[in-house]
Design brief:
Structural class: alpha/beta
Oligomer: single chain
Radius of gyration: 20 Å
CATH class of the largest domain: Alpha Beta
CATH superfamily of the largest domain: SPOUT methyltransferase, trefoil knot domain
Helix content: 25-40%
Number of helices: 8
């Protein structure tokens, strides 16, 4: 069944009204007709099964049949602080990590980023949000992952510290502490609640984090970890790390 995220105020008194590009997709691309059913989501975690009443080029109306909680949201909440990459690579990260279950994205400006200023990243937010929405609809998510304004690395480290939970920075030069070790070995007194359900995951750019950045991250409480003996590309490291975390926590069962 086709799924569409819509603003909450498009659902009034058990009537759903869809306009704009989504209405044109329903009427012109999918060629749906009155009597057909679809799911709409208002980003609250609920999905609303809807039967179409009228289908016009720019306006589609339907009636609510039933509501149910969406089953696509993970228990473990991962915020991905992804260093800026070349355009297509960054979009790939947004798409695939949305499908996987990441709940928040923060574009990160680091020493070795190919994009080194905040303004350039801000101009891309509209397109990035659309990529996230399409991926969330396709993958049966119940909420849209948040896309935050881009941040400089020190600011992001400070934000992660204030947020609490577990903050991790996979780094190719870390040879001792593995991701699995951190997830499975709780500090004394935290055995029943380890790892936390809130995890900040920092991923570097094509050239990786610098040693100075890793030292700064340590001072803010981030834990550098290894993802194994193979060096992953910047656009795959976040996906692999997030998948490993969600698998370890039972969110892929």
């Amino acid at each position: 069944m086709h799924r569409f995220f819509i603003p909450p105020d498009w659902i009034q008194d058990n009537i759903v009204t869809v306009t704009g590009p989504q209405a044109r997709q329903i009427s012109r691309v999918l060629r749906m007709r009155p009597g057909d059913e679809l799911l709409v989501l208002d980003n609250s975690g609920w999905e609303v099964q809807t039967r179409l009443l009228s289908v016009e080029r720019d306006t589609v109306r339907g009636e609510v049949l039933r509501r149910r909680l969406a089953a696509g949201e993970p228990r473990t909440k991962i915020s991905l602080y992804q260093a800026m990459l070349k355009s297509k690579k960054f979009e790939y990260v947004l798409q695939k990590c949305t499908e996987l279950g990441v709940v928040e994205f923060v574009p990160l400006i680091t020493e070795r980023c190919v994009i080194s200023d905040l303004n350039t990243a801000e101009t891309k937010l509209g397109r990035w949000r659309w990529i996230i929405q399409e991926a969330a609809e396709q993958s049966r998510r119940g909420r849209l992952p948040s896309l935050r304004p881009s941040m400089l690395f020190p600011q992001a480290c400070d934000q992660a510290r204030q947020r609490g939970g577990l903050a991790l920075a996979p780094w190719e030069e870390e040879g001792q502490i593995s991701l699995r070790q951190v997830l499975r070995t709780a500090p004394e007194g935290h055995e029943k609640s380890w790892p936390p359900l809130t995890i900040s995951l920092f991923i570097g750019p094509e050239g990786g984090f610098s040693a100075a950045e890793v030292e700064l991250a340590r001072r803010y409480g981030l834990l550098p970890v290894t993802l194994g003996p193979r060096v992953l590309r910047a656009e795959t490291a976040g996906l692999v790390a997030a998948a490993a975390i969600l698998y370890d926590q039972g969110d892929l069962e």
